[in-house]
Specification:
The protein is of the alpha/beta class. The protein is built from 16 helices and 30 strands. The radius of gyration is 26 Å and the shape is globular. The chain binds zinc ion.
Length: about 625
């Protein structure tokens, strides 16, 4: 992230001095004139060269919805009416919130589930008359039907509205009424959603407002319904008036500028409310609704303490933060700028002294991540590079705020990784760019260079407080095997960090209400009020938080992402089948109210149930849990 003006001015001074020193050319006669830097502006570690392998950016692989066509009847069925849609956003969102789902294009098959979400649209163009008739029958037969963008096909009455009116002039959505489904949304920002911010003057997502809806869950500012609701005894029908998958991808791809209200340090749960609403509907529709927890060991909040080391004094101070964290049994993530070139930004600090501190951080058990080499504001505009960049020939030079020479995305990623691994003995998996400069091609570049986790985005730009998976080029068509953990609380906004601990704790509390993620970023340029903040924050959230490094949480989250979850009604109770291809500790599942874990089953050893949350100490492969159900009031 940005450093202070003071540091920047020092940087300018150094750059001027370095230009004057001489013209020893590091790059040989073929190099561009701007790339001249002197030996004194470059730190050479004798005998250290690499990496020697080549980083190849994988070609995009078109995401195939059939990958999600698996699992049993307890899952939410997604009836996909157009594969050329933003279904990947919906899939990633459902995985984040932990709703087990199954995608299908077969109407009959979908309707064998208790709950069906039709995406991205219902109309006579995408569904046969026979399929439309079957959909119309479904809620009357007790099913729960959600239609996204119900535009025709004669189902208006089924969903309880008169007309769907298209507009690009709707900005606000208000959750209305006292329906039990909306009961968990108690914060003002959870009741007041949005499609865009009118004052920004940026074109917003087209929406469909449903007219004459008797009992809507949410309404647009023009009074039309954004989410209708119609009851059929046990059955329900809901029509949603916007492309939920596309909205989710706007956040996950950081392409929703028209929706971004605040930079950081705030609670802004826009996407999370939509996902939680789906979860609430799923839990009320499905007798055997079992969902995946979002926080390790059934805690309420995942907290990742992270530090950007991007200033001469920081690397030394970082050790004091590490000592505190270690004393508390915590592991922080230290994103290190591998600064072996003196330039506009700063002096060299990744030198013999600097790497001693890096070694110390590793020795304290902290995770090291990369914070690039150049720390350039225009990293997002760098060319991809060759994938052959290596130390010492790779020497990026930042000339000013908008110009850098000899720099590439792959060079920044792979050379920093190589050097940090060389000196720390760790395998680097986590990355955060300087200035949070975010190239569209970053997901696939991270994949090409062996990273797994990114903390590049801001939660408030991503419109979510949950982790999410990235896509190739931050578009809709192809998945990247990289997870993003966006920054929630940071230290550069005013008032100074030490003076806003209560506000930060309030944000953490709000996010913890639904198992969100809180990534804290503290630059260790000073100790003082920032270290005091960290101590106060840790104490404040400790009763309900799980703490981990980016790498620890990332490994857990990536393993969770592969978990398959199904429930089956059996004699005298329910059987829950959990399949975890990767081992993970502290996986939690949420079961319906009244379910009681049958601890007599041998496989239940060490498994804890607290209310509706069941936590498994360790799981790998397939595990079956048995539950009995206590007496419950009958559903109307
Ligand atoms: Zn930085």
């Amino acid at each position: 992230m940005e450093r202070s003006t003071h540091v920047r001015l020092v940087g300018i001074g150094l750059a001027v001095v370095s230009m004057a020193i001489g013209s020893w050319m590091l790059f040989g006669p073929g190099a561009r004139s701007q790339s001249k830097i002197t030996e004194a502006d470059f730190h050479r570690f004798p005998g250290v060269t690499g990496p020697t392998h080549v980083s190849a950016v994988p070609p995009p692989v078109a995401a195939d919805w059939k990958r999600y066509d698996q699992g049993g009847k307890s899952r939410l069925a997604i009836l996909l009416t157009d594969p050329d849609s933003s279904w990947l956003g919906l899939a990633h969102g459902l995985k984040s919130i932990g709703i087990p789902f199954r995608m299908t294009r077969d109407v009959k098959d979908a309707l064998t589930h208790d709950m069906v979400l039709v995406y991205p649209t219902i109309s006579g163009k995408v569904l046969s008359p026979e399929a439309l008739t079957q959909l119309a029958e479904y809620p009357r037969a007790g099913g729960t039907l959600i239609g996204v963008q119900v535009l025709g096909g004669g189902l208006n009455q089924v969903f309880g509205f008169h007309e769907a009116v298209a507009s690009r002039q709707r900005y606000d959505i208000h959750l209305s009424g006292t329906d039990p489904l909306l009961a968990p949304f108690t914060e003002p920002l959870e009741r007041q959603l949005r499609v865009g911010i009118k004052e920004k003057g940026i074109e917003v997502l087209g929406t469909y407002g449903y007219t004459k809806s008797a009992n809507p869950l949410a309404v647009f500012e023009d009074g039309t319904a954004a989410v209708t609701q119609k009851s059929y005894g046990r059955g329900r029908a809901y029509a949603i008036g916007l492309d939920l998958g596309f909205l989710l991808l706007k956040g996950y791809n950081n392409r929703g500028e028209e929706l971004v209200r605040r930079f950081d340090n705030q609670f802004d749960p826009l996407l999370d409310v939509w996902l939680r609403l789906l979860k609430n509907i799923y839990q009320s529709a499905q007798e055997d609704a079992v969902t995946l927890g979002t926080v390790p060991f059934g805690k309420s909040l995942s907290v990742l303490l992270t530090h950007d080391v991007d200033f001469t004094q920081s690397v030394k101070n970082a050790v004091e933060y590490a000592e505190y964290e270690k004393s508390q049994g915590l592991v922080g993530t230290y994103f290190i700028q591998v600064k072996y070139v003196r330039d506009f930004n700063d002096d060299i600090f990744f030198n013999d002294e600097g790497v001693r501190y890096v070694e110390l951080l590793a020795k304290e058990g902290m995770e090291l991540g990369s914070h690039t080499i150049a720390h350039s504001r225009v990293f997002s505009k760098f060319p991809m590079g060759t994938g052959r960049e290596a130390y010492p020939s790779y020497a990026p030079f930042v000339k000013d705020r908008t110009t850098a020479y000899n720099a590439s995305i792959l060079g920044e990623l792979r050379v920093s990784k190589f050097l940090l691994e060389h000196f720390s003995g760790q395998t680097l998996v986590s990355f955060r760019p300087g200035e949070l400069s975010n190239p569209f091609s970053l997901p696939q570049a991270l994949q090409a260079t062996g990273y797994r986790y990114s903390s590049t985005a801001i939660a408030n730009n991503s419109l979510t407080h949950l982790p999410y998976q990235l896509t190739y080029d931050r578009l809709t068509g192809s998945e990247a095997d990289i997870f993003e953990f966006p920054v929630t609380i940071e230290d550069e906004e005013l008032p100074r960090m030490g003076d806003r601990l209560p506000q930060a704790l309030e944000v953490a509390r709000q996010i913890s209400r639904y198992g969100g993620l809180c990534v804290v970023l503290i630059h260790p340029n000073i100790l003082d009020h920032k270290l005091a903040f960290e101590k106060g924050f840790v104490e404040g959230v400790r009763p309900y938080a799980w703490f981990g490094s980016v790498g620890q949480f990332g490994q857990w989250w990536a393993a969770r992402n592969q978990v398959q979850l199904d429930a089956v009604r059996g004699a005298g109770g329910f059987r829950v089948e959990i399949s975890a291809p990767q081992p993970l500790e502290g996986l939690a599942i949420e079961v319906p109210l009244g379910w009681q874990l049958d601890k007599r089953a041998a496989s239940a050893g060490g498994i804890e149930q607290q209310g509706t949350v069941v936590t498994l100490p360790a799981v790998q492969g397939t595990q079956t849990l048995l539950f009995t159900r206590g007496a419950l009031p009958k559903r109307s």
